[in-house]
C-alpha cells in the first residue's frame, strides 16, 4: 500500500506494509490514549526532518500524559503540546516544513501542526479525520507536512473526533498516555 500523493506520484516509495521497506526504514509508533490505541506508520523517505523530530519527542517521553487539545469534527484532531491542566512543555527549535514532499493530507494521515509561519512546527501534530486537500502544499499556501499514516486504530481516531467540545477543546480530556516505537 502507498500513500496517495500529488499527481499520483509516489517516487517509487512503498511502505513497510507492502514489504518494500524494512521496519527500520518505516518506523511504527503506538499512541496509547484514554480512548484506545492508534498505530502510526511514519514516512522517513518523504519526511525525514519531520519523522526525526517526532521520534526525538517520542523517545524523550515528551508526549506522555499530554492531550488532544483541539478537536474539530469533519477536520482533524490535534495534540502533542498540552498537559491535561493545559500547560505546555518546553520544545526544541522549529523545524523546516516538508509539505513539498508529495504526501497529501488525506484521512488518517498525521501531519505537523504549525503557526502561520511556514517553518514553525515543533511538537504539535494532527491527524486528519477527512481528506483536507486545502492543507496540501500549493493549494492555498505552503501547506502542512504529512509524515505518516494511521495503520491501526482508525476507530479510535473517529471516537476522539466525535467527543463533545467547547471552542474545539474536548469537554473531557482525551489523554495521550504514551507514544512508543513498536
Protein architecture, described:
- This protein has 182 residues and is an alpha+beta fold.
- It has one domain: Cyclophilin (Beta Barrel).
- The protein has two helices and ten strands; from the N terminus they run E-E-H-E-E-E-E-E-H-E-E-E.
- The protein has helices at 48-59, 154-161, and strands at residues 28-33, 36-42, 66-72, 76-79, 109-112, 125-128, 146-152, 165-166, 169-170, 175-181.
- The strands form two sheets. An eight-stranded antiparallel beta barrel has the order 1-2-7-5-6-4-3-10. The chain has a two-stranded antiparallel sheet with strand order 8-9.
- It is globular.
SSE diagram, text form:
Layout: E1 28-33, E2 36-42, H1 48-59, E3 66-72, E4 76-79, E5 109-112, E6 125-128, E7 146-152, H2 154-161, E8 165-166, E9 169-170, E10 175-181
Antiparallel strand pairs: 1-2, 1-10, 2-7, 3-4, 3-10, 4-6, 5-6, 5-7, 8-9
Amino acid at each position: 500500500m502507498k500513500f496517495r500523493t500529488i499527481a499520483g506520484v509516489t517516487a517509487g516509495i512503498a511502505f513497510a506494509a507492502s514489504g518494500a521497506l524494512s521496519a527500520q526504514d518505516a518506523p511504527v509508533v503506538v499512541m496509547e490514549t484514554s480512548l484506545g490505541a492508534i498505530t502510526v506508520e511514519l514516512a522517513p523517505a518523504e519526511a525525514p526532518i519531520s519523522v526525526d523530530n517526532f521520534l526525538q519527542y517520542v523517545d524523550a517521553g515528551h508526549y506522555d500524559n499530554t492531550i488532544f487539545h483541539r478537536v474539530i469534527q469533519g477536520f482533524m484532531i490535534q495534540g502533542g503540546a498540552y498537559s491535561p491542566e493545559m500547560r505546555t512543555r518546553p520544545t526544541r527549535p522549529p523545524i523546516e516544513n516538508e509539505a513539498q514532499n508529495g504526501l497529501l493530507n488525506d484521512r488518517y494521515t498525521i501531519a505537523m501542526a504549525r503557526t502561520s509561519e511556514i517553518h514553525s512546527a515543533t511538537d504539535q501534530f494532527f491527524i486528519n479525520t477527512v481528506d483536507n486537500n486545502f492543507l496540501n502544499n500549493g493549494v492555498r499556501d505552503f501547506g502542512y507536512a504529512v509524515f505518516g499514516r494511521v495503520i491501526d486504530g482508525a476507530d479510535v481516531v473517529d471516537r476522539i473526533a466525535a467527543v463533545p467540545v467547547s471552542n474545539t477543546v474536548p469537554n473531557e480530556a482525551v489523554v495521550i498516555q504514551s507514544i512508543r516505537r513498536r
